[in-house]
Every structure is written in structure tokens, then in C-alpha cells.
Write a structure and sequence with these properties.
Blueprint lengths: L1 H30 L16 H4 L17 E7 L6 E7 L4 E6 L6 E2 L15 E5 L8 H11 L4 E2 L5 E2 L4 E3 L15 H10 L17 E2 L12 E2 L2 E7 L5 E8 L4 E3 L6 E3 L11 H6 L13 E7 L5 H18 E2 L9 E6 L9 H21 L10 H4 L9
Parallel strand pairs: 5-8, 15-17
Antiparallel strand pairs: 1-2, 2-5, 3-17, 4-8, 6-7, 9-10, 11-12, 12-15, 13-14, 13-16
Helix pairs in contact: 3-4, 6-7
């Protein structure tokens, strides 16, 4: 009995020490600063014009309402497809959250908070399926020519340009026509701090929604595109989103539950994917043929861990405004960035909640700002634009 008591006391001591060690490691890890980037070589100076970011106009209610961001599109003339480039000021923190079952991405592992590089220079969103990932190479070239990127000592800089794509190869013509490196370069060269152009442009040029009803005579999908929205608080905090919507599902106004764009029946009218699913009559989009890709941004200062939570929470915006969403046939992905141009403080949970709101609005705008293309109608044609989005 005495031996048992002694053994229990020793065991308790060992466990207590082990807990203390674990807690100690946790505290030290939490307090450890983010790894510093290598110094830029003296002769490698960023191009002054490319590195400068003007203050957004007070009435700008798109992604560029966040100071430290420029957006540019390039749309191919030969077929409705293209790419969208988003440029960031030096020192912008970034992350990502991928939830669709058929994603097409580049450099997303780098954005994981456990990995070393803390910054991002640009994000490329593109049509063209996996071929469109090459647009990021053009963005890299544009940045490299201007000495903008992650310093790598005497070797200069390496631009950090993660990317995501959507599938639009079956829309509007020859599928061999798709965005490449030249598209990304031109989109970067066109980028500005002005309000983001929405609708049938850039990565959203060939985007459609509402494939769950299949291809019906007189019915089928509807046109969507690029949408963007921003939320400004009196404190100066800004949270905004941009998205290219090419979903299997319907677009829903979360304020009213109204279907804005989606699957159409043989009579050309909206069928409502929610009703079809409950009735067992919906068709799942085929893997790789759909996808909604976007980005949320804030002018607050966030760590890479907090930026990832921002991206995760922004997916709530997808769930509110797209039905169904995150399906095996979608490659749904959201990037997130924090430019740190605002000196105020805010709970990053609040920022994440605002990101979901901004993303939901941007998704609806992707449908309301689109126009008919190649025989596929838009919400404007069906008269389904919600009153709050009418201009």
C-alpha cells in the first residue's frame, strides 16, 4: 500500500511537470515574433509608381475601398474569359481557406500560417481552368520588372503571387482560348485604386451559375461574373470583398431569401435549387467545371493566423448567398489579406463577421452586374435584381 502511494505521488509529480513544460512551450510559441523577411539588396529598389497606393475615394464601395490595394482585369476578345489581378502594398499579410471539392490553386500552401513567408504581393484570379494558373506567372513578371517581391538577399526579390482558377472552357467558343501569362501581365498593368469594374470582366467573363438543373431546352444556367462590395465603419475600419462566381448553385439574396440567378426550367423561369434538392431532382455539377473564387480584405493589422480565420469566416458569405455551395463539383476558395493601413484596433472576430457580410453582398452583385452573353441570360433579363441592388 505504501509503495502504491509513493508511486501515485511520483506519477502526479511527473504529470504536473509535463503539463508545466507543455504550457511553457505554448506561451513561448505564442509570444514568438513572426520571422523577419531578409533585407532587400541596396541596388534593388521598388519602382516608385508601382509601389505607391493612393487613398481610396470616400464613395468607393468595392475592394479598393481598402487602402493598399489595386485591382485590374484583362478580358480576352476571342472568347468570354479572362483574369483579374489584385496588387497589394508592401508588408500585406495574407492567407487562404479552400473548401470546394475540385479546387485549382497555386501557392496556397505558402499561405498556411505554419509556413515562413508572412506577406503576399498579389493574388491572381482567372478563368481557363488549370491553364489559367499561368496568369500568375505574368503577374510575377510584372512585379519582378519593378523590383517588388519577397527579398531573397543578393538574388533580389521573388514576387509572392498565389492564384486560383474557375472552369469556363465550355462557355462561348473555342476552349483552346484561355488566359495565359500575358493575361496576368496585362491585368497587373491595368490595376488601379479606382472602384472595381464588375460584371462580365476578367476572371468573371465566362462565369455562369445554376447548373444543378442540367441543360434543359429553353432553360439551363444564367450569367454571373465579378462582384465586389465594401463595408465602412465610422471608426475607419474597412472590410471588403471581390469574387468571381461560377457556381453549381443558385445565387440567393440573404436578406430576403430570393433567388437572384440560377437554374432555369424549360419555361425559362427560375426553378430554385433548394426546392429541387428537397425533391431529389437536382443534378450535381461535374468536378472541375464550376467554382467560386474570391478574396476578402481589411485595412486592419492582422497576423497570418488571424488572416486565415478571416478567410474561414468569409466562407459563411458563400453559404448565405449560394445554394448549394462547397459541393464536390466546386473548387470554392477564399484568399484573405490585411494591409494594416488603419491604426485602430478591432476584434478580428468582428472583422471576420463583416467579411462574411461583404462577401455575400459581392456574390449577389456578381449576378446583378452581369449581362447576357452567348445566349445565356442574366438577372437583368429576368427582372430578378433585388431592390437594394438596383441603381
Amino acid at each position: 500500500m505504501l509503495r502504491a502511494v509513493v508511486y501515485m505521488k511520483k506519477t502526479k509529480l511527473v504529470v504536473t511537470c509535463a503539463v508545466a513544460v507543455i504550457v511553457g512551450v505554448s506561451v513561448v510559441a505564442h509570444q514568438a515574433p513572426a520571422p523577419a523577411a531578409p533585407q532587400r539588396p541596396a541596388g534593388v529598389v521598388p519602382d516608385a509608381k508601382a509601389a505607391a497606393f493612393a487613398k481610396p475615394a470616400a464613395d468607393n464601395m468595392t475592394l479598393t475601398a481598402v487602402e493598399g490595394i489595386k485591382v485590374g482585369h484583362h478580358t480576352l476578345a476571342e472568347r468570354p474569359t479572362g483574369c483579374t489581378t489584385i496588387l497589394f502594398k508592401e508588408g500585406t499579410t495574407g492567407s487562404v481557406d479552400v473548401r470546394g471539392g475540385a479546387p485549382g490553386t497555386r501557392e496556397t500552401d505558402l499561405l498556411n500560417p505554419v509556413n515562413n513567408v508572412q506577406i503576399v504581393n498579389a493574388i491572381s484570379l482567372s478563368g481557363g481552368s488549370a491553364f489559367g494558373l499561368d496568369a500568375a506567372s505574368g503577374v510575377m513578371k510584372w512585379l519582378d520588372e519593378r523590383n517588388i517581391g519577397y527579398p531573397v538577399g543578393a538574388a533580389g526579390v521573388v514576387p509572392i503571387v498565389p492564384a486560383a482558377i474557375l472552369f469556363d472552357l465550355g462557355f462561348g467558343g473555342n476552349p483552346k482560348i484561355r488566359p495565359g501569362a500575358d493575361c496576368g501581365y496585362r491585368a497587373a498593368d491595368a490595376a488601379s485604386e479606382g472602384p472595381v469594374q464588375e460584371g462580365n470582366v476578367g476572371a468573371g467573363a465566362g462565369a455562369t451559375v445554376g447548373k444543378s438543373g442540367g441543360r434543359l431546352a429553353g432553360g439551363g444556367s444564367m450569367k454571373a461574373g465579378i462582384g465586389s462590395a465594401a463595408i465602412r465603419l465610422p471608426s475607419g475600419l474597412v472590410v471588403a470583398a471581390i469574387v468571381a462566381v461560377n457556381a453549381v448553385g443558385d445565387i440567393i439574396d440573404p436578406w430576403t431569401g430570393q433567388v437572384v440567378a440560377g437554374a432555369r426550367g424549360a419555361d425559362g423561369k427560375l426553378m430554385d435549387a433548394r426546392t429541387m434538392i428537397r425533391g431529389g431532382g437536382s443534378r450535381e455539377g461535374r468536378a472541375g467545371e464550376n467554382t467560386t473564387i474570391g478574396l476578402v480584405a481589411t485595412n486592419a493589422k492582422l497576423t497570418k493566423v488571424q488572416a486565415q480565420k478571416l478567410a474561414q469566416m468569409a466562407h459563411d458569405g458563400y453559404a448565405r448567398a449560394i445554394s448549394p455551395v462547397h459541393t464536390p463539383g466546386d473548387g470554392d476558395s477564399i484568399f484573405s489579406v490585411a494591409t494594416g493601413t488603419w491604426d485602430g484596433t478591432a476584434n478580428y472576430g468582428q472583422i471576420g463577421s463583416l467579411a462574411a457580410e461583404a462577401m455575400a453582398d459581392a456574390i449577389v452583385r456578381a449576378a446583378t452586374q452581369a449581362t447576357a452573353s452567348n445566349g445565356v441570360p442574366s438577372a437583368r433579363d429576368l427582372g430578378t435584381i433585388p431592390a437594394r441592388f438596383k441603381q
